[in-house]
């Protein structure tokens, strides 16, 4: 009940200004009355009562409260409807606990109606926070609670309201340039909504007034003029005395800025004549513009009289019901300036001192300087020279500081330039070092490849020479001895001679095999694929099976690559038989375009790849040298008792 009494108090204050005989939308009012009387459920009837309360609360407060109480009675403990009642009955959004309690109820329900009520409660709380200069809390609530709801509701009027409140938050912090884009966005959104309901038109005019005020403060005369003109056009569509008074005060402010004091005073007086009976608190701003118009016309005494009449400073803050909430931090300096204009420095000093005491947040240094100046004027004129001397010293100090700032700036710029230059030189030096290191590494690699190539080519030539010597020299000699022994066997037979011939035949076969391995004639006549296949066959025995697999081998491989691959396979097969005691060996040679893969896998004894001593043999070193020469890669996979697999990959382009 206490909440209702507060609510009644505030609504009665405004009822004189906004009262009408009937609501604007009478058909909607009649439809809601029918639902209230004939609704099928109490919930439906309660919702109708709440809507009727919203319609009538500013037209006939007693009737609006009657509908509100009727809706509460019909709610019968329904949590959601009770939250609607509490939302419409809340006397002030200062009560953060009550606001949060209402929001907590609406947030339980995930449907558009609940979202809408959540938005309305939250936006009203934001307005209160902005009016209390709590912009940080207001902006946080806008971003956290209100903007996500507006995106879900997709109501352009809500987008306009959010932009308006963002703009107001900056205006209250005197950040007018930052406020302009938000207020302009709000006006554009309201302009886009057609047709306009009564409350939308009211909000549109109100937003235009806020934007015109900011344009005035920033002295953007053409924009202020067009904004005020648009607001007056809308007031012709829907007259509203409260908005008319507000827009007129901004129009007068605009005229005063342009020096049209007489025109401004005429507009103000005409508006005041048509606002008889309006509570003074709605006319304070208009009266204040009248004071400035009279002062602008040179009537300083008349201006002070108008100020005292409209803003009686000794009683205005004691009668909030009549004058509303007046910020003395603005009124006290105005009084001080008015007395200073008429030369009453004693009274001016008095109000400046009151201002300091009332509003500590205002720049004390500036006001203290003003007070000191007035007190000096009251006491003597003798210290004017001293003041001028102090000003001259201050100018000298300011000039000195300015020169020091310039010198510091130049020194800083020079230091930055020097550091940049040093950094650039260091970068070039490091780059050249890196290039030289890469070049040296490349030369070393090239030299190593040349040495490897020379060694391999020398080794191959030596193999061919030894092979030819064995085949043509020792092989031919042994063949001749074999012929002679065969002729002797025909003339004279004996077991010793037979054994000698048999051993000689074996020696001749072994020499030919060695010569063939050292000089693989079929490699150059029939190609790598055939040579490797024959090599695998030649190494195969009754105890060791060697399987050869190949795919895609090109006939255009260089002799160098073919020879090195042949020698690698030859060495790997020899190692598998001699050291690995392998029983089964698989040799795979596969070419895919420019990539050739060679794999030799056996089931021999294997070895520990982590033991570096196992890699000290000449055979593996030769394999490594040949792979490096062909600029390939190879990997060994082995473990004791698990055989050995060697994979080699080279590019043959």
TrEMBL record:
CDD domains assigned to the protein according to its UniProt record, in alphabetical order: HATPase_UhpB-NarQ-NarX-like
UniProt GO MF annotations: ATP binding
Residue ranges of the TM segments: 406-429
Catalytic activity entry: ATP + protein L-histidine = ADP + protein N-phospho-L-histidine
SUPFAM superfamilies named in the record: ATPase domain of HSP90 chaperone/DNA topoisomerase II/histidine kinase (SSF55874), TPR-like (SSF48452)
The entry's keywords: ATP-binding, Kinase, Membrane, Nucleotide-binding, Phosphoprotein, Transferase, Transmembrane, Transmembrane helix, Two-component regulatory system
Record domain Histidine kinase: where: 465-653
Pfam families per record: HATPase_c, HisKA_3
Listed Gene3D superfamilies: 1.20.5.1930, Histidine kinase-like ATPase, C-terminal domain, Tetratricopeptide repeat domain
Protein name: histidine kinase
Keyword Membrane: yes
Originating species: Sphingobacterium tabacisoli
